[in-house]
Amino acid sequence: RVADAVALQPDMELVGIADIVTDWRIQSAAGRFPLFASTDEAQQTMLQAGLPVAGSLEDLLGQADVIADTTPKHVAAENLPRYRAAGVKLVLQGGESHETTGHSFVAQANYESALGRDMTRVVSCNTTSIVRVLGALQDADLLAKARGVLIRRATDPWESHLGGIMNTMVPESKIPSHQGPDAQTVLPGLDLVTIAAKGAHTQTHNHYWTLQLTRPASREEVLAALRAAPRIAFIRMADGLVALNSTIELMNDLGRPRGDMWEVAVWE
Fold it and tell me: What per-residue confidence (pLDDT) applies to 214?
């Protein structure tokens, strides 16, 4: 996703992708993007698998201005010394801690505060949704406090054969769940508490919010505040969009790459 997105930008050039795997994920990128090996061992494995390796991670770093690190959590933190030695700017993903970068990012909420920084962290999809929705109400001076319940998918679709849950729901043992404090790294003024549970599904998440407003407001005023946000889209059960799976089908029918929904869907 990141490589495809960078390749579409008119003011960016994708130098390549560095990885350690040789499976279908990196094979599907071969021939479309230059491939680099993140370790010496991986380079030998990739060459033995017939992948065209353009060089090492250090070779990639020598050509790049910015690295978008999408590795599993904690791997990026381990790679920080290599990145700093190369003098590149960094964008990390939400599995890393806020303390690793000192800045957490949602474009709708705090774009300007990221300007000029050497690194930032793009928060998770759940946290991004919270910031977009509650931030829109906060911008309209409507939000006093929020209490939310998050039903998360059990695992990512591409690895659902490795684990997950069936015929149950698993609540997180701690309150608040990490998404609330994570949202506050982007919008420190948010008064919110989140509770989360894993559901027996592998596509999308569902949030339920109880809000206290700063003043009496009509339904239309609240909807208008949400409509003013660029990455919130309204859906209606009357249109047959009655569950999470139907939103995914809609994205596929709209021709979205990978069936992705870039917006936060809010049932109107």
Answer: 99
Give every CB contact of residue 164 below 8 A, 6+ residues apart in sequence: 154, 155, 200, 202
DSSP state of 96: S
User: In what helix (H) or strand (E) does residue 122 lie, and over which residues does it extend?
Assistant: strand 119-122
pLDDT tens by residue, 138-189: 999 999 999 999 999 999 888 899 988 999 999 999 999 999 999 999 999 9
**3-state DSSP assignment of residue 225:** helix
Task: With residue 44 as reference, give the H or E element that holds it.
Answer: helix 40-48
Is CATH 3.30.70.1400 the classification given to domain 2-122? Answer: no
Give the residue range(s) of CATH 3.30.360.10 domains in the chain.
125-267
Residue 139 contacts by C-beta under 8 Å, 6 or more apart in sequence? 225, 228
- Helices and strands in the chain: count of H runs, count of E runs: 11, 13
Q: Note the maximum CA span of the chain.
A: 66
123 classed as catalytic: no
Peptide bond into 176 cis (omega under 30): yes
- CATH class of segment(s) 125-267: alpha beta
The catalytic position among 49, 75, 125, 151 is 125
Rounded to an integer, what is the distance from CA 178 to the centroid of its chain?
Answer: 15
Q: How far apart are the two ends of the chain, measured CA to CA in Å? A: 29
Which tokens sit at 72? 């599993």
Q: Are strands 170-171 and 192-198 parallel, antiparallel or unpaired?
A: antiparallel
